[in-house]
Amino acid sequence: MSMTMGICVSSTFKVCYYNHNKAVTVTAQKMSVRVPYNLKEGQSRIFHKLPSGLNMEVIVQKKKKTRNFVEDENHYHPPLVFVHGSYHAAWCWAQHWLPFFSQSGHDCYALSLLGQGESDEPVDSVAGTLQTHARDVADFIHRNVQSPPVLLGHSFGGLIVQYYISNLGNDRFKENLYPELIGAVLVCSVPPSGNSGLVWRYLFSKPVAAFKVTYSLAAKGFQSSISLCKETFFSDTMEDRVVKRYQELMKESSRMPLFDLRKLNASLPVPSVPNSSLKVLVLGANDDFIVDAEGLKETAEFYGVSAVCVEAVAHDMMLDTSWEKGAEVILSWLKGLIN
C-alpha cells in the first residue's frame, strides 16, 4: 500500500516523476494549517503520495470490531471513501460521520483534495480540475482500498464523484484508472450540469438569496460573518461557538479555489452513464441554502433514482446539529446494498 506518514510544514519543494519516459518537474507549496483539526479517538492522519509526487491528506478510521460484530457473505460492510466540496477538507467527515460509520462496521477514508486541508498545494491558481481531482481519488482507491468501496461526495465533491462514475468501465483506458465501486452517495451534490442553473434560478426567484449566496461563497463573505456562515451551511439552531469553529476550519483549509468555475462549467454536464448498474443514492437537505429542490431533482433523474430529502438539516448535513439524520438514511441504504 502506497501510504506515507508525514507532517505538513511550510516549505516549497520540487519533485520529479516520469510520464511516458519523460522527466516532469512539479513545484508545490506544502500547506501550513494554522487551525488544525484534532483527530478523534480511533482516527489517524496519513499522506498518500500521488503520481505527481504531491501528498494528499487522508483521515482514516477503521471499523470498530466488537464481540457481536459479524462479517461474512451475508453481512458485508464495504469501505467508504469520502470526498468533500469547496471550503472543506477531510475534517468535515471526521467530526461525526467517520465515528458513526466505523462504529457500524465500515472502514472509512476521508480525503483532502490538493490545496485543501493539509494536502500539498500545487503551484497554480486553482487546486485542480474535475478530471485531476477524480484521478487523485481513483489513485488513492487503486493503491489503498482492497475491495470495491462506496464513494461519497458532498456539494462540489459530489460532482467529482459523478465524473468518476462516468469513467467506470471506460474501455478507452488500457489500465484500470478508475477502480470499481460498489455504490455511490451524492450528498447535497452540485447537479451534473453544474451550479449555473442554481445561480440563475436564485436570481429570478429569490434575488435577495442570490445576492447572499454569491457574496457568501464567491466573495467568501462566510469567512467574516458568523450569521452568514450559519445561513449558508448550517441550521439556525446551531450554536454560534460551533459555527465559529467550523468557520475557522473552512477558512484555513481552503486557501486556494477547488476549481476554475468558468472552465469547469464549460466542461459540463458530466457524461451520462445510461447502461450503468451502479447503485446511487441521491441525498438532499430540505433546508439547503445552496442546492435547491430543482438541482436535487436533476441529479436524481440523471441516475434514474428517486431523491431522498432529509427534513430539518442544512447544506452541511454531515456537520449540522441533526447530522445523524442523513447518516441513518445512508446506513439503511448501505444495509440494502449487498443483502
From TrEMBL:
InterPro entries: AB_hydrolase_1, AB_hydrolase_fold
Pfam families membership: Abhydrolase_6 (PF12697)
Source superkingdom: Eukaryota
SUPFAM superfamilies: alpha/beta-Hydrolases (SSF53474)
GO-annotated biological processes: lipid homeostasis; phosphatidic acid biosynthetic process
Positions of the AB hydrolase-1 domain: 80-320
Gene Ontology molecular function, alphabetical: carboxylic ester hydrolase activity; lysophosphatidic acid acyltransferase activity
PANTHER family attached to this UniProt entry: ALPHA_BETA-HYDROLASES SUPERFAMILY PROTEIN, RE40534P-RELATED
Record-given protein name: AB hydrolase-1 domain-containing protein
Source species taxonomy: Eukaryota, Viridiplantae, Streptophyta, Embryophyta, Tracheophyta
